[in-house]
Amino acid sequence: MVTRTVDLRSDTVTKPTEAMRAAMATAEVDDDVLGYDPTVFRLETEMAKIMGKEAALFVPSGTMGNLISVLTHCDVRGSEVILGDNCHIFIYENGGISTIGGVHPRTVKNNSDGTMDLDLIEAAIRDPRGEIVYPTTRLICLENTHANSGGKCLSAEYTDQVGELAKKHDLKLHIDGARIFNSSVALGVPVDRLVRAADSVSVCLSKGIGAPIGSIIVGSKSFIAKARRLRKTLGGGMRQVGVIAAAALVALQENVGKLESDHKKARLLADGLNEMKGLRVDPVETNIVYVEIEEGLHISAGKIVKNLEERGILVMDVSPSRIRIVLHHQISASDVQYALSCFQHAVKGGQSENGN
Predict the structure, then answer these.
(1) Are residues 94 and 235 in the same domain?
(2) At the top level of its lineage, which domain of life is listed (predicted)?
(3) Same domain membership, residue 277 and residue 180
(4) What are the angstrom distances between the C-alpha of 136 and each of 15, 124, 190, 321?
(5) What CA–CA distance (Å, rounded) separates 50 from 203?
(6) Model-level pTM?
(7) Which secondary-structure segment (H or E) carries 41?
(8) In the chain, at which end, N or C, are there fewer CB atoms within 10 A of the end residue's CB?
(9) Among 196, 228, 179, which residue's Cα sits nearest to residue 58?
(10) From the CB of residue 157, how many other CB atoms can be counted at a distance below 10 Å?
């Protein structure tokens, strides 16, 4: 019988804290579609200030935030966006930019650190002289941190270079900053500096900083005005949504400062896993840990995940030989040690079953 659960599937699994629940219960609310919810207004104003942009818009999810941003920039069907072949928008958002927006994705190879080579980005930009046959390039998208690369951080300098490239070709730059606060903490660089070159940024409030629901889009006032209309079109307009925004305000106040601890615990877990024979862990920069199972171990990721679940450790297998683990503020140092002991049992148990 499982007596302890340690949920490491994602940083989206956190539960609202008592402070969040109290704020939600007493939140001042009004109709946000009409633009009158005071708590949402506070959240949007605060996020615009933090991100160094003119305005902000609260949306239900990160996927909707990215979709609205891409569609706002690419407001002519048949537009093209350049983005990484291993990025969240391209892989995990249901192809929404194409199916809903008629926007064509043109992928560039993501490097292991989440970047794309500048020369490859520039080579992917369509020659306007070929507009009779080509889509029209209008946008470049980056992701910071880059989740599929193991939560790698994109530097301000790299982002500036991409921004300069975009301006050179009269393009816009959008950053999927679902975990931008993690990047800011890990790099020791203010978040507004990291996104200075961007025309728009989406920020997830329900990942690292632990709010129960929602994301924020930031950009210029004119960009946000267009984005607000698209939010309504996509069914994202919410009414007395201050009850949710109140929890996000608490998350901003209380949990950004806890991200450094999350990163330390991720490194502690990674170091322990690296000591286990047959496991190899990618370098850890933030709160995401990828574990590679070497062939000589003769056990699949799925089997290890099942063995761990029997002991109350929840993780995700992303391939037959790869496991993803994500730390968050509701994971303690004790939880990390317990997870390591369970991994040891799971690996040994799997080896025994296979006769090794």
Answers:
(1) yes
(2) Eukaryota
(3) no
(4) 43, 11, 34, 39
(5) 11
(6) 0.95
(7) helix 38-51
(8) N
(9) 228
(10) 9
Taking CA atoms, 27 is separated from 37, 63, 209, 223, 244, in Å, by 10, 26, 19, 28, 9
- Residue 301 in any domain: the answer is yes
- The single-letter code of the amino acid at 172 is K
- Distant-in-sequence, close-in-space partners of 299: CB < 8 Å, separation ≥ 6: 278, 293, 347, 350, 351, 353, 354
Residues 242 and 270 in one domain: no
**Tens-level pLDDT at each residue, the chain (356 residues):** 678 999 999 999 999 999 999 999 999 999 989 999 999 999 999 999 999 999 999 999 999 999 999 999 999 999 999 999 999 999 999 999 999 999 999 999 999 999 999 999 999 999 998 888 999 999 999 999 999 999 999 999 999 999 999 999 999 999 999 999 999 999 999 999 999 999 999 999 999 999 999 999 999 999 999 999 999 999 999 999 999 999 999 999 999 999 999 999 999 999 999 999 999 998 999 999 999 999 888 899 999 999 999 999 999 999 999 999 999 999 999 999 999 999 999 988 655 555 55
How long is the chain? 356
Bridge partners (DSSP) of residue 347 are none
Range of the domain at 288: 258-353
